Amino acid sequence: MQQLRASNLSIVCSDAIHNRNKVLRVSSSTERPRALRYKELLITDHLVTAEGFAGYGTFNRNLPISGLAHDSFAVSLPDSLNYLSDGDVVSVDLFNKQISVLYRKSSPHNSLLLTERCNHYCLMCSQPPKDVDDYWLGQEVLEAIPLIWEGTDQIGLTGGEPTLLGDIFFQIVQRFHSFLPQTHLHILSNGRAFHNLNLSLRYSSIGHSNATLGIPIYSDIAEIHNYIVQADNAFDETIRGILNLKRLRQKVEIRVVIHQQNVSRLPQIAEFLSRNLMMVDHVALMGLEIMGFTRANLDILWVDPFDYKDKLQQAAEILENNRINFSIYNHPLCVIPEQLWSHSRKSISDWKNEYDVECTQCDVREQCGGFFASAKFKRSEHIHAIKVPEVKTL
Questions:
Q1: Which alpha helices (DSSP H) does 12-96 contain, by range?
Q2: Please, are residues 340 and 312 in contact by the beta-carbon 8 Å criterion?
Q3: pLDDT tens digits, one per residue of 2-40
Q4: How many Å apart are CA 394 and CA 374, to the nearest integer?
Q5: Start-to-end Cα distance in the chain
Q6: Tell me: the pLDDT tens digits for 67-120?
Q7: Which one, of 258, 257, 297, lies nearest residue 377 by Cα?
Q8: Which fold has domain 5-103?
Q9: What would the DSSP string read from start to end of 170-212?
Q10: How far apart are alpha carbons 302 and 141 in whole angstroms?
Q11: Which helix (H) or strand (E) holds 255?
């Protein structure tokens, strides 16, 4: 999910803690065990009587909160955060008077941002990199992991390039392995760092069998891939990284974002993967999200998915014939061949998807992921409602 942030909050706290960041689990119960309260934010619309919580939050602007312990704080929450519920995890910046929502227990789409730094400058990057010192993001994630519900199905780690965090990256993976071994960890990385065998060995030594690295391959030709990611030697280092990881029996997903710069070679990319990386665990064929750099480069990136449906089907057939597990993401069902529907995934995060007016009359809307909200800038001209013929019974 998106890490939402609210600023300019009214916060009351002592001078002893006003410079601190607090990563806390949300609770609405005053009956929580005292041993857990020190890492929790109690949200209440009543006068605070329960002691021992790290913080107290309220949506009631007229609620007087007093008698706080020297290491506690109180915050008046904006209505935009009224979805917060038990088990969510937030970060409260007491100095800058901000609160960020890191994790929502009720959402199936939780992603944690590890860094905004990157050694790629991809033409279609939805999170443009920043050259900043943001190691605090990794430290924040380390604090959040023990607070996340152990029944969480999956969590994504994203950037930037997470491996640029160095030791903190490995600490984060280790902590997920220790606290949330049943939660599938999906790590987005450009994979280049793993061309170093020692680094690959360090990652594999953690032994997290429920973690997958999602690594992009944008072309079967090195020069094209390097141009798309705007980095020299990226293709060779990425391929070597993937081979190292698979040699060590780590799970790897190949991610192919389809756009104008690579769509003509989509079948050849599938051939390349089938011949050289057939051991990968999954291939994701992905539609374009019109965010970040994509909007600036739209004239050299955008292609209507309907116009490449034949090449998409050719690529799918090549992968299927070579028994490579693959899925299609971010494509409305009405612009891809019906034969591929079984491979299409309803994957667009709940906070950034929408449907066209025509979709209200579609018989397969519940199976379709719709559009990114950013599709308002550009979307297929072939969107239409699909009507499934009624089955006549005797």
A1: 34-37
A2: yes
A3: 456 666 677 777 666 766 789 999 999 999 999 999 999
A4: 47
A5: 48
A6: 566 778 888 888 889 899 999 999 999 888 899 999 999 998 899 999 999 999
A7: 297
A8: Glucose Oxidase; domain 1 (3.50.30)
A9: HHHHHHHHHH-TTSEEEEE---GGGGSHHHHHHHHHT--TTEE
A10: 35
A11: strand 251-257
Provide the residue count of the chain: 394
The structure tokens 């990226």 sit at 234
β-bridge partners, 24: 90
* Tokens matching residue 287: 């539609």
**CA distances (Å), origin 14, targets 19, 58, 92, 140:** 10, 18, 15, 22
b/e sequence 34-49, b meaning 16+ C-beta within 10 Å:
eeebebbbbbbeeebe
Element (H, E) at 43: strand 40-43
Check if 5-103 and 111-377 are the same fold. no
- 50 burial level (CB within 10 Å; 0-12, 13-18, 19+): middle
Whether residue 292 contacts residue 128, with contact meaning beta carbons closer than 8 Å, is answered with yes
Give me the CATH code for the 111-377 domain, please. Answer: 3.20.20.70
Domain coordinates in residue numbering, the chain: 5-103, 111-377
Distance, in Å, from the CA atom of 342 to the CA atom of 345, rounded to the nearest integer, reads 8
According to DSSP, the residues that pair with 203 across neighbouring strands are none
DSSP single-letter state for residue 11: E
